[in-house]
Task: inverse folding
């Protein structure tokens, strides 16, 4: 069913009892042309673009739990393309352009809100770095505006510009950045993929890979063996588990990242702001809760919950930036497992196994990448060649030394 004002009125007249299921509940077929492991944002987007933009035959998505239960439903929903390096910026700007048409493309309201994002700076050196980043963004066709103190005050009056330790000197703003409704993105892609004939199978965990003479044959699952001509892996924090099944290692570590939501407030902040003197970001959801986030917990983990020192660190940064947050009550927090790469940038590539493709290394930033990641991963699987905006995101950069190290931290996944 196409969602429109007419379908809404029709269903309203029937008491909203006749809406069809958004995707089918089905059991897997014995074999598919392409199987995608992982029903998160990236896996679903990949299946959607494979089915709608490429002629690849039968496609299935296998998800071990429920759709949207992974990082796609756990993130702080910030969308931006404010990157510095040539390997990243064209990819993220391509993604932002896809976001701008996503609700129409999917006929599903992903609540994409271009409310702008401001990165505060607190020193001359930090301003120079942000000017460089802004210029790089402009050269790549993105938008960037350098704000002085008055500019920050105009957009984010709640920020304490005169903090004694970290006085704010200005900010780099990307007006086209913003937020989207995270689970609507998963549901929208799932609905689109299902309508295009993709089989989405929940509660189907991949427990092994069947590989013969270096070529993928299919996957072992709790629902039995499922054959696949090609296998795409988009399992975020579980990437190393699957690569181990194929007997190779990825340059990936799994880390926990927490998010926090406060009690609902009246409109308080209508943009996204990040603190430059620590790692802290804040926005306000449409329901009124403030959405807060910060650093990784700093150790390897598959536990989807965090620890108190990081909670304290995030709240300290928040209160340093906006002192009135000290009266805020945080209602909920949770963790997600991040696929942290050695240079902080993603990987979309083929692997040593014929027919096996990996999409991983999204670190903190994979939500905003969802449309481009799906688009480029589908392109790779269909054509056995990288999409032009993803040529830098190959695995061999770790062998040749052509890192895409945005933060300059080197091979320290926990610091990216
Ligand atoms: C707290 C937090 C805040 C974040 N904030 C932002 C942000 O503001 N902006 C931003 O751009 N990014 C952010 N991110 C990052 C972003 O959410 C992720 O990079 C992105 O969602 C990862 O891709 P995905 O959606 O496909 O992952 P997921 O949703 O995790 O999908 C992977 C799926 O694979 C499934 N799976 C795993 N193993 C198997 C198996 N063996 N068999 C079958 N299925 C399997 C999992 O169940 C899961 O559903 C944040 C992440 C977290 C945790």
Result:
């Amino acid at each position: 069913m196409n969602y429109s004002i007419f379908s809404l009125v029709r269903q309203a007249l029937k008491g909203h009892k006749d809406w069809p299921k958004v995707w089918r509940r089905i059991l897997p077929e014995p074999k598919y042309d392409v199987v995608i492991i992982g029903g998160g944002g990236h896996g679903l987007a990949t299946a959607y673009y494979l089915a709608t933009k490429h002629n690849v035959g039968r496609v299935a998505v296998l998800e071990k739990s429920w759709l949207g239960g992974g990082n796609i439903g756990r993130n702080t929903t910030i969308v931006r393309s404010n990157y510095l390096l040539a390997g990243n910026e064209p990819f993220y700007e391509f993604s932002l352009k896809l976001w701008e048409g996503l609700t129409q493309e999917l006929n599903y309201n992903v609540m994409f809100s271009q409310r702008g994002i401001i990165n505060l700076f607190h020193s001359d050196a930090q301003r120079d770095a942000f000017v460089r980043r802004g210029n790089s963004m402009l050269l790549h066709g993105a938008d960037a505006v350098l704000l002085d103190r008055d500019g920050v005050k105009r957009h984010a009056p709640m920020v304490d510009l005169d903090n004694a330790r970290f006085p704010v000197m200005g900010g780099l703003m990307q007006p086209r950045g913003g937020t989207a409704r995270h689970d609507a993105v998963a549901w929208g892609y799932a609905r689109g993929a299902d309508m295009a004939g993709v089989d989405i199978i929940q509660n189907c965990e991949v427990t092994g890979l069947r590989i013969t003479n270096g070529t993928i044959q299919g996957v072992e699952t709790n629902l039995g063996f499922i054959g696949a001509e090609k296998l795409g892996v988009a399992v975020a924090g579980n990437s190393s588990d699957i690569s181990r099944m194929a007997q190779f290692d990825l340059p990936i570590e799994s880390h926990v990242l927490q998010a926090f939501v406060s009690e609902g407030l009246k409109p308080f902040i209508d943009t996204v702001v990040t603190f430059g003197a620590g790692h802290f970001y804040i926005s306000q959801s449409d329901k009124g809760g403030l959405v807060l986030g910060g650093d990784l917990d700093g150790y390897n983990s598959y536990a989807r919950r965090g620890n108190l020192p990081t909670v304290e660190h995030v709240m300290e940064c928040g209160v340093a930036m906006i002192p009135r947050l000290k009266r805020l009550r945080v209602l909920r927090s949770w963790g997600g497992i991040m696929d942290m790469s050695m240079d902080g940038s993603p990987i979309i590539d083929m692997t040593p196994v014929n027919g096996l493709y990996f999409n991983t290394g999204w670190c903190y930033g994979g939500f905003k990448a969802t449309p481009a990641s799906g688009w480029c991963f589908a392109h790779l699987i269909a054509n056995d060649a990288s999409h032009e905006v993803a040529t830098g995101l190959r695995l061999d950069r770790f062998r040749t030394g052509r890192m895409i190290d945005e933060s300059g931290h080197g091979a320290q996944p926990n610091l990216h």
Summary: The pocket of flavin-adenine dinucleotide is lined by residues 37-43, 62-65, 69-72, 74-78, 205-206, 234-236, 238, 257-259, 293, 336, 362, 364-368 (CB under 6 Å). The chain has a mean pLDDT of 96.
